[in-house]
Specification:
Chain lengths: ~475, ~110
């Protein structure tokens, strides 16, 4: 530490004038000192180091330049030169910082380096000690995104093969999002509109800021624990069969939590299929890639996980059509059987009984078909009423709600008693309630009747004296 | 009305038609039974009484499914970590979900 004193015979130092100062503004020797000063190399180094370290501009700087001469040591440190048209700057990037970074310097690349200048004393070299690097003209986030994406993709986390199919009609749906924003409101509204049969288990989390990744991971794990608990307790229907992870739109920075590696891994490891709906259509996060299904928006995520009850009502109507068609087919078969019986009766019966037999069979058949068709029509109306109510909920959907009824009317025409009426029979009904009159006791004197004959109806009244 | 007896038997498959248990069925159960019913009826071959009973049952199931679809209200529960009790699923109205403090994150 002691400065070597120059010998007495030394001439005054050529630079020992008070106004002559060192590069960093500090005098190398005290002003007015005399004699030739011979310094140790390390003294010079220290002086340079002090000068460099004392300069604020060099302590924390951003430098743009072109990379050349990259070498990486066995210890993992990177050495390269940053140059422009006139100068070069040696750079050192230590292993720890380097491995944290998404980016590797490559010769010829224009980059922006953040770091400090210091002297490497063993070599007397002024170097830039790199803290971080990003390509010139790009944001750091975009860079980290691409690099992490490449790394996780190489691990197979985004493989199509590991995407799980979504359940078609989940009884319970998990939703992981911030419950205070418009996103949750949109999701719950969509679910309520499309498939209100669903139950929802909401897990609140933060979706922005430093704590967001940990909060998202915690929420997903809680949901998994809840799923396990429900299954263990014998209530599997309470366990979400699918999870929505959602967040509204924002800048790349706002959405950054969904590019966090821990979040991506939690999404991959989630115990049930997961739909990710983050930001707007154009926003793509790594969580989107990792999810089983990527939805363009939070609302779209809600639409994807449940069927639309309106479309479902249409399939119920198709089921109704099939029921009715099958029943009509069965009735037609019964009618054919009956015709066979009737012909058989014609053959075996004595002539005297023939007319009575025909009449009885005809009446039985008419009554059977009438009652059956009445039931069919009633069922059709009932189902239609139910589907109508549902249809009214859907604006602009005027589905063929009456088709079932029209079908029943057609069936009535086919299977109705017309054929029997054509043979000269009449159907007698009470005007008041439409009941078929089978017994004179059913129609006391004065009862209003309607007589249905082959070509129409006749009103009639029972003679008041008829039962005298 | 001795002659009406067999007809009445055909027309009133009461045993199958007004099964109160339908009201208790969940949507998925009702739908599954409806699909089975339709398939059985379409397969044919059953006596007329059975066919009518199936049709009746099918129509009731359809109505039940439709009613569930129409009348259901979305039920929302929020998972909340309660000190000492672990996770609790609390019924909430969709608009009243709360921001819950996170225990794990700072």
């Amino acid at each position: 530490m002691t400065r070597a004193r120059p010998p007495e015979w030394a001439l005054p130092a050529w630079d020992a004038l008070p106004e002559d100062r060192g590069a960093a503004g500090k005098p190398l020797v005290a002003p007015g000192a005399f004699g030739l000063r011979i310094l140790a190399v390390s003294d010079v180094s220290r002086a340079i180091r002090e000068a460099v370290r004392g300069d604020e501009r060099l302590r924390d700087l951003w430098v743009e330049g072109e990379v050349s001469r990259v070498t990486i040591s066995s210890a993992g440190h990177a050495y390269f030169a940053l140059k422009d048209e006139r100068s070069q700057l040696q750079c050192v990037w230590f292993r720890d910082e380097r491995l944290r970074s998404a980016f590797e310097p490559q010769a010829g690349l224009r980059i922006v380096v953040h770091g400090r200048i210091d002297l490497f004393e063993p070599q007397g070299a002024l170097q830039l000690y790199v803290e971080s690097i990003q390509p010139a003209g790009f944001g750091d986030l975009a860079l980290r995104f691409e690099a992490l994406k490449a790394r996780l993709a190489a691990e197979g986390l985004f493989d199509a093969a590991r995407k799980r199919p979504l359940p078609s009609r989940p009884a319970t749906i998990g939703v992981v999002t911030s419950p205070t924003g418009v996103v949750w409101r949109d999701i719950s509204h969509v679910l309520a509109r499309r498939w209100p049969l669903a139950r929802v288990v909401l897990v609140a989390c933060r979706v922005q800021g430093d704590g967001a990744p940990a909060s998202i991971v915690t929420a997903l794990r809680r949901l998994e624990r809840y799923i396990e608990e429900c299954r263990a307790a014998g209530r599997p229907e309470d366990a979400p069969a699918v999870t929505i992870l959602a967040r509204g739109g924002g800048s790349l920075e706002d959405l950054w939590a969904f590019n966090d590696e821990a979040v991506v891994r939690a999404v991959v490891a989630h115990s049930v299929p997961l739909v990710c709906g983050v930001g707007h259509e154009v926003d793509v996060t790594l969580a989107d890639f990792a999810a089983d299904v990527r939805a363009p928006t939070p609302s779209a995520a809600a639409e994807i996980v449940v069927p639309d009850r309106m479309e479902f009502a249409a399939s119920l109507r198709r089921a109704n059509d099939r029921l009715r068609n099958a029943m009509q087919g069965r009735l037609a078969a019964a009618a054919r059987d009956l015709a066979v019986e009737r012909r058989a009766l014609d053959r075996v019966s004595p002539v005297a009984r023939l007319a009575a037999g025909r009449e009885q069979v005809g009446l039985l058949f008419d009554r059977a078909t009438r009652a059956i068709l009445a039931r069919l029509a009633r069922d059709a109306v009932r189902v239609d009423r139910a589907t109508d109510t549902l249809s009214r909920l859907a604006v602009g959907r005027v589905a063929g709600a009456h088709s079932a009824l029209a079908g029943a009317a057609a069936a009535l025409a086919v299977l109705g008693p017309q054929a029997t009426l054509d043979r000269g029979y009449a159907i007698v009904r009470r005007t008041a309630d439409g009941a078929i009159v089978r017994d004179p006791a059913d129609a006391p004197g004065g009862t209003g009747l309607r007589l249905r004959v082959a070509r129409g109806e006749l009103p009639a009244t029972v003679d008041p004296d008829s039962h005298g | 009305m001795a002659d009406a007896a067999p007809v009445v038997a055909i027309l009133d498959p009461v045993t199958a038609s007004s099964d109160p248990a339908i009201d208790k069925l969940g949507f998925d159960e009702a739908l599954a039974e409806l699909q089975r019913t339709v398939a059985e009826l379409e397969a044919g071959g059953q006596p007329l009484e059975r066919a009518l009973a199936l049709h009746e049952r099918g129509a009731a199931l359809l109505e039940h499914c439709n009613r569930l679809l129409t009348d259901a209200d979305l039920r929302v529960r929020q998972l909340v970590a309660v000190a000492g009790k672990g996770l609790q699923a609390v019924d909430v109205k969709p608009d009243e979900a709360q921001e819950t403090p996170e225990s794990g994150a700072s």
